Amino acid sequence: MTALEFTSVVEHMAPTLRPAAYNLTRDSDDAKDLVQETLLKAFVNRNKFKAGTNLKAWLYTIMRNTFINHYNKVTKRTSSIDTADLIQLKPSDDRIVTLNRASGAFALQDIHAAIDKLPEDLRAPFMMYYIGYKYLEIADKLELPIGTVKNRIHLARKELKQELKAYAYAD
Length: 171
Prior knowledge:
Elements: H1 3-25, H2 28-44, H3 55-78, H4 83-88, H5 101-117, H6 120-130, H7 135-142, H8 146-163
Helix pairs in contact: 1-2, 1-3, 2-3, 6-8, 7-8
């Protein structure tokens, strides 16, 4: 199979990869990235494809392995973090930039106080979500069902919104 034929066939199959990528990632942007990376690896490793075999299966295998490798890398990178440390994470005043430092400092104190008032079972998943963990990662770290994690984050937001309603914008 020539390079031009291979490129044409692979580009024709690209749309069929998107649903499978979404099933793996559960995020549309991550799925698009996964498909793009899969196609790149397919083009780079075109010479490893054996003509007469199932190209679609070969592409799905590349995609699945790419996803697994990325998941393992992310898990390895975050697995050394202790959740007790995450609960204590709060942005420091020197990392916050505001136009009016006085009102910004008051708002930041109020936000910290509101977060401190949250019950422990709501604060831990909320803080993990705040620093960038996805729901599934939080559920795994805290050994909770994903529905419980989503509910606790929702309740934490609701309580924070109520506690900080003085800062709400008027419509």
